[in-house]
Amino acid sequence: MTAPRPYALLAEVTYRCPLHCPYCSNPTRLRSDRELTTDEWGRVIREAAGLGVLQIGFSGGEPLTRRDLAELVHGARQARLYTNLITSGVGLDENRAHELRDAGLDSVQLSFQSDHVDLADEIAGAHAHQRKLDAAAIIRAAGISLSLNFVIHRRNIDRLPQIIELTETLSAGRVELANVQFYGWAFLNRAALLPTREQVARAREVATSAKRRLAGKIDIFYVLPDYYETRPKPCLNGWGQRYLTVNPIGDVLPCPTASSAIPDLRFENVRERRLDWIWRESESFNRFRGTEWMPEPCRSCPQKEIDFGGCRCQAALLTGNAANTDPVCTLSPNRASVDAVLDDLNQSSSSSHDWTFRVNPKEDSRRTDIAIEHAQFQ
Amino acid sequence: MIPDHAQPRLAGGVRLEIDGTTGKAVLLFPEGILELNETAQEIVTRCDGHTLNEIVLGLAQEYDVDLEMLAADVRETLADLERRKLVEFA
Prior knowledge:
The complex is a heterodimer. Chain A contains 16 helices and nine strands. Chain A is an alpha/beta fold. The longest helix of chain A has 17 residues. Chain B is of the alpha+beta class. Helix content of chain B is 40%, strand content 21%. The chains are: A alpha/beta, B alpha+beta.
């Protein structure tokens, strides 16, 4: 089918991160290719704007570990893009915030692990919570629009009321309460992260009433725990329709988790191809574009233009075939693969599981520490 | 009802741009894009310190429509943008 125009580019500028969250969606195994340079990112950004992209999200890893971040933001503003920084806040001091604002940064999405320092630091695997609180104040003082992001899972879902309170305290205009989605490290740690059915039901009530109470004050986006749903999420609003991701080593992905979840797709690299060719012509972007690729029950389903068959990565991870219907759908012949996971948790008496913390790419971990120290003391 | 002397401004983190692909005006904000029609564009362009009354009078010079109807349209558009938290009033 003909390619539509994309609206948003997710620029994963590094995999390095001072945090070790067990739900990180980054790949659990990384290729050791070097990160794209400042000039290479500059070209990617201009090519994306040429394709029709209007928004860029700088993400990672922790994008602040890149010393050239302000330069990349400046380049994006010159291309007239709306610039978002998606960050842990660690490494953001006043100087850095001003540097980014002056480069034209429009908005910051600051991640938190929980409302309370002990649990938050335990989840992050780092003493990060206080630095995030400081970062929130610095962002607001710099006059940059602030949103908060929380990943919700079994260990923090019961604290949703307190988490929403923290959002009010920090005067954020927008908060994402995103139930963990199982890709990357989160897939590996699923048994420890999946909330129980009762927890999910309570959280839904808390989120619904907070939405009502804070309407007009804080925009609350509650991302549903899709394993407990009966229909799949409209992942990406369809494959290769609106979004593209460029990862730290230059691979161009229809979805940030596709490179690890769908190993049989070959992804193109910006070092070898122009972005517009990759978006329009490449096999990876065209494989699941539109509805032609769909198997039954999607092919004849009246919902197929609503949920687009769900998530290709989830189909690949749970059924071994990315072209299957997302098994979250109760019409999928593979729904049993999701129910088995839910039953395991909800019918067993013990729900305690250890998790594995995310580790950094080996050759880069020393460099991360230095960059963060430098940012902290400059 | 929004008073005549209210001064609408784009909310923090909201930017007005022209979409190079369609040539249409868009509001850009965190995780969102709103395409504006011509009237909304004319209104939003004037959200820079002008009062609501001044915006209505300014538009009246360009469009040959009943002033009261125009004022009602402007109010409705601004109220909608305020609900979406894209416009604030000083």
